[in-house]
User: Fold this.
Amino acid sequence: MSFSVERYTLELAEAPSEALIVTPLPEREAEALGAAFAAIDPWASYGYPASALSAYLGTREPGAPRFLLTFRDEVAGAIGMRLDWLRGAYIQFLGILPPFQRRGFGRTVLAWIEREARAAKQRNLWVAVSEINTDALRFYERHGFAQAASLPNLVYDGRTEMLLRKRVC
Assistant:
């Protein structure tokens, strides 16, 4: 699978003169990002501790890159991937910080992930979304993902996660 370049410059459709920068996530950024994401949904609703999110984001793991998103030299979000998962890439984590939401960053990131998956001749993109995260569910459905499975009580008793899939090849 791709995702091997050290720096990606992703042009924003809404502002072609602007770019979202994607780089491997430096360990020094993990603690602040973990705290920021723990304070917003869906992580806040699930009670994810900042330390757990920081540990995930700061971990180096073969086949599971973590990326930092920056915009105008400010941290805008993070991405965590699991490559080569069920003949495709699994988006384990996609978080955009509130000041950067609803600006086309998520759409830009998904388009980049899809281009990388196609270049690697992968068949699928995968993501799991909590039933309480209705904005994320609508976002992924708007971008061609469809429900592949319902996973009740996976993360939290009494709640359901939806596994979504998008065919890319």
The beta strands are 8-11, 19-24, 66-71, 74-82, 88-96, 124-130, 146-152, 160-167. The mean pLDDT is 93. The first strand starts at residue 8 and ends at 11. Residues 107 and 142 are 10 Å apart (CA to CA).
